[in-house]
Every structure is written in structure tokens, then in C-alpha cells.
């Protein structure tokens, strides 16, 4: 009886101790978007919890605000465009921001026309008023890159508006500003359903692969919390693989708690749009080709302060371990 009790107690103790102690990590995301579906899957499906991580997620609405939050120790990890790490490095920081896990690999915006356009071509933008994104941010730089690719000078061939705050761009278009607007989902599809605009093109399909949205942290935090970063990246990779093999409906159902005011059918439509154009990275590795493409786009937009070597601001150690 005593031996059986001790054996049962030991098994119970081992079972309890095998569950990792939960550590809270503060994450600042640049916006709340279905574009980041794998992140929400990692949360809703318990992949972070399995790795002993309790994510405290805050939406900071804009690249500048997100990076300020990270640099001022208001967050441990930021989910934001890789260009922000280059801007910080160019300012001469002693504690650079390191990109360690990629979440999205294309631009996530769509071109929305106020009026329905039959047989759209990019030439239709000439002479129009184009409501773009914030100067220096990835959406705007990719937007200009794509326009130039189609032989449109964004400074000469159209009226470019880019002085409206990120959070107010959609409402500005809805109130009558601009013939065309560059929007993230689900706003683009929602406007189409409401008759406010019509999706005519995808910037993501046009721009090629870039490290558009990446998890990053300060070098000091990474040095002191390598185990946490490794487990965090592992959870992200598991979510990326989950998204790759599950249906659009299953993904929509998984992330719907993060979009309570968005109909499930709309979430599913948006997931399909992003998944079909390869926007969701299927692994967290940010490769050199993507890094160089990013800097080429920044250079083309006149926003690249200086070229930064891949190995300085990108650390793939944790992503590579996750794949193993």
C-alpha cells in the first residue's frame, strides 16, 4: 500500500513538474490585423502556453509608436516592419534592435478604388488622387516601389497624400478623400462589401518577398533571455505550420476572438486572400534575399539611411532551432 502510494505520488509530481512555469512576455504589435493570423493562432491554440510563455499583447498603432514602446522598455518584443530596426541602427544606438522571427513575407495592403474600374491597369492611377500610407513606413515604400515598377512617378503622375495618421486613413477615404487608397485587410474587403470602394490590385502580389512584419527585440534583452526567445520562436513556427495545413475556415474560427466585431465569413475571406498570395511566412527564417529586397525598396523610396549588413540586425539562430 505504501509503495503504491509513493509510486502514484511520484508520477503525479513528475506530471506536474513537466509543465513549464509560465513567464510573462510583453509584446507590442504595430496594428491589429488578420495579416498577423499566425500570431493569433499561437495564442488561441495554446502554443505559447505550451512553451511556458504568457503573452501580454498590446496594439500600439504605428511603426514609430511600436518602436518607441520597445526602446523605452514598454515591451519586451515588438511585431513591426524590419525597416524600423534599420532606422534605429542608423541613429547610432548602442543597443540595436534584432530581427529574430519573421511572421509575414509580403506586403499586406491592397489598392482600393472609389469607383468600380473595368479592366483595371496601373495606368488608371495617372492623374488621380492617391491616399497612401505614412512616409517612411513599409506600406508607403512598397506602394511607391510598385508604382515605379509600373512606370508611374508617385511625385509627378498623381497627387500623393501621405500626411494622414495610420489609424485615420480608412476613415479619411470613407469621408471622401482620394480616388484610390492603400489599405490593409479587413478594411479593404469591408469597404468593398459596404460599397465604399473596390479592390483592384494587391501590393503584396506585386512587390515580391520582403521581411514585412517581424518579431524583434533589443540586443540586451536577447542576450539575457535566449531561452525565452527560443521558446517564443518555436511557438510561432508551430503556429505557422498550423496555418499552412488548416483550412481558411478553421483559421478564421481560431483567430475570431481577436476580431470580435468582424463577421466570421469576412475573416475567412481575408485569410484566403492573404494565404493564396503567400503572405503568411511558413517558417520564421528571415533570409538574405528578403533583407536585400527590403533595403532596395527603402533605397528606391529615398528612405534608406545606410545599408546595414544582414548579420548585424538579423539573428536566425532561434528560427533555425525551431525548424529542427
TrEMBL record:
- Which family, according to the similarity comment? Belongs to the bacterial solute-binding protein SsuA/TauA family.
Asked if the Swiss-Prot or TrEMBL record annotates the protein with the keyword DNA damage, the reply is no
Record localization: Periplasm
| Keywords from the UniProt entry | Signal
Which organism does this sequence originate in?
Bacillus taeanensis
Q: Which Pfam families match?
A: NMT1_2
SUPFAM superfamilies the UniProt entry points to: Periplasmic binding protein-like II (SSF53850)
Put simply, this protein is called ABC transporter substrate-binding protein
Top-level taxon:
Bacteria
State the GO CC annotations.
periplasmic space
